[in-house]
Amino acid sequence: MGGLERVLIEMLQNISKEKYNIYLIIEDNSGKNNIFLEQVPKEIPIHFLKTEELISKTDYHRKRKKSLYHKTMYNLHMIKEHKIVVDKTKKVIEKMEKEFGKVDVFLDYDWGSRRYIEQLDVRKKIIWIHNSIPKLLNKKSKIKRFGKYLNKYDSIVAICDDMKEEIERIYPYLQGKVERIYNPFNFKRILDLSKDTSKLTKSELELISKDYIVAVSRLDTVQKDYKTLLKGYKIAIDKGIKEDLYIVGEGSGRNSIEKMIKEFSLEKRVRLIGNTPNPYIWMKNSKLFVHSSRYEGLPTVLIEAMICGKLVISSNCPTGPFEILQGGKVGVLFEVGDHKKLGEELHLLITDENKRKKYERKLKNRVVEFRSDIVIKEYEKVIDLEVENSYEN
Questions:
Q1: Does domain 187-369 have CATH number 3.40.50.2000?
Q2: Of 38, 55, 76, 292, which has the highest C-beta tally within 10 A?
Q3: Which positions of the chain have pLDDT values less than 50?
């Protein structure tokens, strides 16, 4: 359900297949949860590095790490996984070399290859950064070590200006290596899907016909801060709003979020919709879109909601929301964790349709910069430049 996965699919669907021979390497085979696999273009070979069985065994010991035995087994499994991942990645590269010659560019799209990138024999290496590094890594020692990993790449792509500035501020020695490229969005596809009710169940059709507010994200209680969302929504209810809250997405935090819903007596007003490859139908039919993260990269769902014509209320978290919403000109921002402000804004914008429509008119011009055809040219430009440099050298 992650934004990164949806953006990757968008890139793979739109980048030139005549210009590039592409292999897709995915670290984890998540089985039935690989909900985007059918959207990968058929001409792109897919290689999984870790099997479901291997992931399951490691996860079994990870959940029991308080025991010395399981902690030891977990560490051994992690060592085994690392070796398998490195060996299989090298084999995929060798397979490409036999078919096409030397691999020109390795795109590390989720920084998953950073610990072994120097072992890969390719001409150029590019890493994409999708999140605020200090917020994600938290500790100074981890942040410092991450900079050493980044320095092993030829180019670094940040997905918003705030993030580019953040990286160059933390790691001054990387200045000149960092590019800013927004995430690409296929407007036609999103808008078509936002009207497509063909895969909805009878109960889901009933749900989208009602008045509601929507949030779309992974069910996670750390980054996504659902506690603030639910407390803010409770305030808006107490002020009199009638709209339910739908949460679209799935994740390891589901049980914790269900407990919060009960704690705030919201069982009759909040619905967990679960995973869906088409969140746009839920966005399009909502009154407005709400987002409560503690940190982000460039939150994809904000832009997708805006493409669907919906007003966005978002936490002013690092990085992305301030930039996307132009400091509050085309959407509403509240400070991270400020559930009172969130509740007030939800109430105001639900009850004041004129104000909501005013925002909706403004956001149409803002989202044009994220159009897929514009952004993919930037992708190709950074790839081509690295390829040209590798041949010159």
A1: yes
A2: 292
A3: none
Rounded CA-CA distance 155/148 in Å is 13
Is residue 294 within 8 A of residue 223, CB to CB? The reply is yes
Angle at Cα 313 formed by Cα 333 and Cα 197, nearest 5°? 160
Tokens, residue 204:
């889901």
| pTM to 2 decimal places | 0.73
Contact between 203 and 197 (Cβ < 8 Å): no
- Within the chain, which residue ranges are assigned CATH 3.40.50.2000? 3-185+372-392, 187-369
Strand intervals (E) in 197-252? 212-216, 244-248
**Amino acid letter, 340:** K
| Longest Cα separation, the chain | 67
Q: Are strands 312-315 and 332-334 parallel, antiparallel or unpaired?
A: parallel
Distance of alpha carbon 319 from alpha carbon 135, whole angstroms? 9
pLDDT of residue 388: 87
H or E segment to which residue 336 belongs: none
Res 1: pLDDT: 52
pLDDT of residue 5: 86
List of residues 6+ apart from 347 with CB closer than 8 A: 235, 236, 239, 240, 241
Report whether 21 contacts 97 (CB < 8 A). no
Q: How far apart are CA 95 and CA 102, in angstroms?
A: 10
Which residue carries 């879109």 as its tokens? 289
Tokens representing residue 391 in the block: 């041949």
